[in-house]
Structure formats: structure tokens, C-alpha cells
Amino acid sequence: MTPKEKKDINKIMLEEIELTKKSIEKYRELTKPIAPENAIGRVSRMDAINNKSVNDAALKKAEQKLKNLKIALGNLDNDDFGICAKCHNPIPLGRILLVPQNRFCVNCAV
């Protein structure tokens, strides 16, 4: 991998980290407890509880993505960055640019 490619990947990862942090903030707002004294009605309350559980799952996924992005960013200078962790073949640059935190090639990710 060339230094320019690594620089591009670094830039993309930093941008993705910032976007993910913003998503996490949004999900944290959406997953705050629903106060029982709010008079929103039983059906609306059930809908709000359901939405909260969906947002809880999205929050967990975003937090895991942020963790993986930070790990990938820390590993960017390693010699094995961009090499599939399973088959040890190079991961195509396009895949790295789309999903920089992924450690597997398309074939091994399945």
C-alpha cells in the first residue's frame, strides 16, 4: 500500500470517526428513559418503548463501529494493515475505503 493510499485511508477514517461520534450522540438522546409522568397515552408509550429498543441497538452498533475504527486507525501503520486476517490476501483498496475498519476481504467476510 502506498503512502498516498494510507493518507487517503487515514483521512476517510477520521471523517468516519467524527460522523460516528455524532450518530452516537444522537442515539444517546433518543435512548433516554421515557418518563412515566408524560401523558402520551398507552399506545404512544408502547410505540416510544419500541423505538427506544431499536435506537438502543443502533447505539450499540455505532459504538462498536467507533471502537473498530479507532483500532483500525491505530493499526494503519502496521505492515499487515490491508491484509485479510483470515486468508492473508490483500484487501482491495475500494473495500478499505468503503469500510476501513473491516479486517477481512469480501470472500472471508461471509
Can you describe what's shown?
The protein has 110 residues and is mainly α. It has one domain (3-79). Helices cover 65% and strands 0% of the residues. The protein has helices at 3-30, 42-75, 93-98, 106-109. α1 runs antiparallel to α2 (42-75). The chain is elongated, with a radius of gyration of 19 Å. It starts with a helix and ends with a helix. The mean pLDDT is 87.
List keywords for this structure.
single chain, 110 residues, mainly alpha, 4 helices, elongated
Terminal CA distance reads 24 Å
Helix amount: 55-70%
Poorly predicted residue ranges = none
* Sheet having the most strands: none
Give the overall shape.
elongated
| Number of continuous helical runs | 4
> Which structural class should the secondary elements be placed in?
mainly alpha
DSSP strand tally: 0
Compact description:
With 110 residues, this protein is mainly alpha-helical. The chain has one domain. It has helices spanning 3-30, 42-75, 93-98, 106-109.
